[in-house]
Specification:
heterodimer; A: alpha/beta; Rossmann fold; six-stranded mixed sheet; four-stranded antiparallel sheet; 8 helices; about 30% helix; globular; B: mainly alpha; about 0% strand
């Protein structure tokens, strides 16, 4: 059996004394999508940041792309695409300059930058400072940044937030299920999330309340009540 | 690591050229302080230890502005996370920030030292230019080494505007002493014997210690 892309066993993470994640266990295979649901403050973003190697797990076993975290985090970095609430961009630089900077850090050619600017429909605004772009445009540049190095794993924190329907459709082949990448998708869109998911994780106050291959929409919606 | 540090430095300089928020602010601050000293001391010209002290205290305080702004672009929009996600040695971030601060300090001094000579200094500094250049560059290296380390340490703290000067200024004291003592004989009308080599050696040692210390610990500073 192929090694899972993500394997969590009893993951715990605290902020000071306050637990943000407790006893989270998940396994996700190559090309699969894990949909993560939960109300604000449930620990969804913390989970993504642990998987992205941006936060250290405090207990439990965490393996991402064959790297055991936190000790082997360096092995996973550069193979993860992260689309968060922030676009992780420099507001005073243009989309092209931002992407070229990240391309240099990842050892990616400048041609890939132009290819992605075209793919997210921003070639014509590629020279404008990011701070002059609309929220949806910034989100699209953030998606291009996450895809520069063609990562096998995508961590997506509400990737459609701020996008109009046309822009969301434009990003679908890049970030959606059809991209063929392994994905962890945090979303409040219950129906869409369940439709795209091979596995579901529902969090309440940092604890898993729903887990497994399937979940019904009514029980997921109860997480928000 | 050098390739990544070069990319980060180039990006920082590009942002500075667009925003002009660090080096010009530092230079303007130093000019303002010289004018304040001019009126506060009620003297048209200074020389000797007083001149060296005024020059170096002003440069050190101006550098605090640059240190405070060193990670501002990284904090906005979570850009630091973008760097931390890349497969690079995180020490590259430190080397780039120290190099950027060093260049800001050089830019500051290109404005501040001539302005000091015109506004406050009695004796001319032209004949001592090579020695002053060596003192300035060695001091800048130390200020940049410590400044980038402290800026990285304070980057994720909420009270960073307070933390930076509180941590930085005590660490700057050895540089202040060495740079002011080394500079003093060159700002005196009738200079006596001076121990330039001793003070340059002291600053070189300070620079080396803090550069090595920062390279050893910076990776841990960026951990959550």
């Amino acid at each position: 059996m192929a090694e899972p892309v993500i394997a969590l066993e009893g993951l715990e993470r605290r902020y000071g004394d306050r637990p943000a994640l407790q006893d989270v266990s998940v396994e996700l295979g190559e090309g699969q999508t894990l949909a993560v649901f939960g109300a604000n403050g449930a620990g969804k973003t913390t989970l993504l940041r642990v998987l992205a190697t941006l936060l250290r797990p405090h207990a439990g076993s965490v393996t991402v792309l064959g790297a055991s975290l936190p000790g082997e985090a360096w092995k996973a970095r550069g193979r993860i695409g992260f689309v968060g609430h922030d676009a992780l961009l420099y507001a005073d630089l243009s989309p092209r300059d931002n992407l070229r900077f990240h391309a240099r850090l990842h050892g990616v050619s400048p041609e890939r930058v132009e290819e992605l600017l075209d793919a997210v429909g921003l070639s014509r605004r590629a020279g404008d400072p990011v701070r002059e772009l609309s929220r949806g445009m910034v989100q699209r540049v953030g998606a291009a940044r996450a895809l520069l190095h063609d990562p096998p794993l995508l961590l997506l924190d509400e990737p459609r937030a701020g996008l109009d329907p046309a822009a969301a459709e434009q990003l679908e082949p890049l970030l959606g299920r059809s991209s063929g990448r392994t994905r962890v998708l945090v979303t409040h869109d219950v129906d869409r999330g369940l439709a795209e998911a091979d596995a579901v994780l529902g969090l309440r106050a940092g604890r898993p309340e729903i887990g497994g291959d399937r979940a019904d929409a009514a029980s997921v919606r109860r997480l928000y009540s | 690591m050098i390739r990544a540090a070069g990319a980060i430095l180039r990006k920082d300089l590009r942002i500075e050229l667009r925003t002009r928020e660090s080096a010009p602010a530092m230079a303007l601050f130093s000019l303002t302080v010289f004018v304040l000293f001019h009126f506060g001391l009620h003297r048209d010209t200074l020389d000797g230890a007083l001149a060296a002290g005024v020059l170096w205290v002003t440069l050190l305080l101006a550098s605090v502005l640059g240190v405070n702004r060193l990670f501002v672009a990284e904090r906005e929009g979570g850009a630091l996370d973008g760097i931390l996600l890349a497969p690079i040695d995180r020490t590259a971030v430190y080397l780039a920030k120290a190099a950027a601060l060093f260049l800001y300090l050089v830019a500051l001094e290109l404005v501040a030292v001539p302005a000091f000579a015109v506004l406050l200094l009695g004796p001319g500094i032209g004949p001592a230019f090579p020695e002053l250049l060596a003192i300035l560059l060695l001091a800048d290296l130390g200020l940049a080494a410590v400044g980038a380390l402290v800026s990285g340490l304070a980057a994720e703290t909420r009270a960073r505007d307070v933390v930076v000067p509180l941590l930085l200024l005590p660490l700057y004291v050895p540089v202040l002493i060495a740079a002011a003592r080394a500079t003093e004989p060159f700002l005196t009308t009738h200079p006596g014997p001076h121990g330039l080599a001793k003070w340059l050696g002291f600053m070189a040692l300070y620079d080396t210690v803090f550069l090595l210390l920062a390279v050893a610990v910076f990776d841990f500073l960026l951990e959550d």
